[in-house]
Please model this.
Amino acid sequence: MTAAAYEAVGWSYRRLEPSDPVSAANLRWPAGYRHPRNGSRPRLTASVLEAFTRARPLIEGVEAVGDPIEVLPCVFHALWHSRLSVSLDEPLPEHVLVRMSVAGAEGTTALWGGGANGARRGGRWSRWGLGARVRFRGARRQVVGLSGQCCVLVGENGVDKVVLAGFLFTDPDFAVLGAEVRVAGGAAVGLPA
Model:
């Protein structure tokens, strides 16, 4: 019934398969540290970002900053808010490589929001949002969903992939290729203002 209702207004409807268990677990863990209290110490946050300006193992960067019990919540908070990035394809042990993301380098918390913390008109991110066509890991994909810091991409082969935004944006091959903007009630849906 939902598919029929969507088709009646000219929209498409698809059910996504559950995400990969490893990727889902890797998203759940930093999500537990998303509360602002874990990123509320500017000096600690700056030290964490500086420690990961080059890719290095998680525990190595954490120990370079200080006591892991104090530093890890700040690191996971930065991962959730895309200031740091990590591969979601493998479990997150202490030796996983972590690096500063584009968002961390620019001091933003989310690249698809509006204003100073978001996409800039006419810049690299100006066509970023739902419907954006991107290149990621050597393949052309389209953004079909955004939720928190997660992006749902569909490839030319029709396979869906859920990717943490920080990981997507720091991929060396990443590029925004264009967009297919959906219009509902005269307003563009899913693209930043």
Notes: The helical segments are 2-8, 21-31, 42-51, 58-65, 68-80, 102-106, 165-170. Confidence is low (pLDDT under 50) at residues 106-126, 181-193.
